Amino acid sequence: RPCAAHLYLDRKKSISKENKLRWVASDSLGTAFTKDIDLQNATHLQINQSGNYFIYSSTTFDHSKDIYVETFYQSLTKFHPLLPRTGDVDLVFSKFGGSKTSDKHHTNFLAGVFELQRGYLISSSLSQSAHNFLDQSNQVNNYIGLFKL
């Protein structure tokens, strides 16, 4: 399929200084790929062809060692280098936790269809400490992908 990608979390270095998840385009299963989409700085998927895209992200968190699940946030964002003053714009946003009764093991799935122009950079961001709870026990627990419709 043209203009598509499916990437897995970089388990060696999962987060950037800007709290963006880092991705790899290779895996032992042979299911990760990019086609007509560029992975920039391991954190951003670059749109090379304008159009409507289905974007998805699945991130799994493990709080099994914690009594209280702190509140954390995750978002899929877009950024265009020619519009630097707009900064990251949230496409989809999620909040989880904040209670003793919150699930100790949680998978956050964010997805949607978005019209994107050539040059947009797509990324997944976490709140400050959320990366400490990423469940990296299995390569396929955390992924991001997109394809042009």
Distance separating the two termini: 10 Å
Q: Strand tally, please?
A: 11
Whole-number average pLDDT?
A: 92
* C-alpha Rg (nearest Å): 15 Å
As for the number of domains, it is: 1
Main sheet attributes: strand count, strand direction, barrel closure: 6 strands, antiparallel
Oligomer: single chain
Can you tell me the residue ranges where pLDDT is under 50 for at least 5 consecutive residues?
none
Q: Briefly, what CATH class?
A: Mainly Beta
Q: What's the CATH topology label?
A: Jelly Rolls
What is the 3D shape? globular
- CATH architecture assignment: Sandwich
What's the helix-strand series? EEEEEEEEEEE
Structural class: mainly beta
Estimated helix fraction:
under 10%
Keywords:
11 strands, mainly beta, 0% helix, globular, six-stranded antiparallel beta sheet, 149 residues, Jelly Rolls
Description:
The structure is a single chain. This protein has 149 residues and is mostly beta strands. The protein has a single domain, classed as Jelly Rolls (Sandwich). It is 0% helix and 48% strand. The chain is built from no helices and eleven strands. Strands 1, 2, 3, 6, 9 and 11 form a six-stranded antiparallel beta sheet that branches. Strands 4-5-10-7-8 form a five-stranded antiparallel beta sheet, with no helix packed on it. The chain is globular. The protein starts with a strand and ends with a strand. The mean pLDDT is 92. Its main location: membrane. It comes from Magallana gigas. One of its GO terms (biological process) is immune response.
